[in-house]
Amino acid sequence: MSKVPKYLRAVPAATTKFREIEVLIISAQDLKNVKHVTQVRAYAVVYVEKDYHAARTSVDEHGGTNPMWNEVVKVKFREDLLENDVLAALNVDIYAHGLVREKPVGSARVLLCDVLKGGDAREPADNPIQCMTVQVWRPSGRPHGLLNLWVPPTGRFLIRRESLSFSVREEAEEDETVVAVKGGDEA
């Protein structure tokens, strides 16, 4: 009997935990005009793992090759993905809406390690504002256009970096020490 590698084993759905990330898809600029007769009516599909969950923006009817969505999308992905795949990324695929078929315009990709910041939400230096402009790549592999997106600097999707900052236990011990010192001065 051959042994199946760990990365090929199926994870049972009942034990799979999911995380959610919010992203504001703002706009794109200078996209390739894939509709030669009519104006491009673009929309974006956002995902980390397309098999598990993908979110979609509405179609921009008037922007053409410079669409403006300004929509918040929420994307779910497996929690263990962050530990197992260092190249896991937030993917944005842009399509031109059509009556017959959807034409791919391009795609952009941001590594999750660049999007998911950690630390204390009260420390602005530890949670920089994540307004990003990312290169859009054509299906042929050539760069063509830019995508503007924003990830909130704080929120429920932050990863705590206990090892790089103080821990919750140390903070509680400091609070007890301060109370004990104040209580000793009053007596």
Automatic annotation (TrEMBL):
InterPro entries documented for this protein: C2_dom, C2_domain_sf, C2_SRC2/BAP
Top-level taxon: Eukaryota
Gene3D superfamilies listed in its UniProt record: C2 domain
Record organism: Malus domestica (Apple)
Classification of source organism: Eukaryota, Viridiplantae, Streptophyta, Embryophyta, Tracheophyta
Protein known as: C2 domain-containing protein
GO biological process: defense response
Residues covered by the C2 domain: 1-125
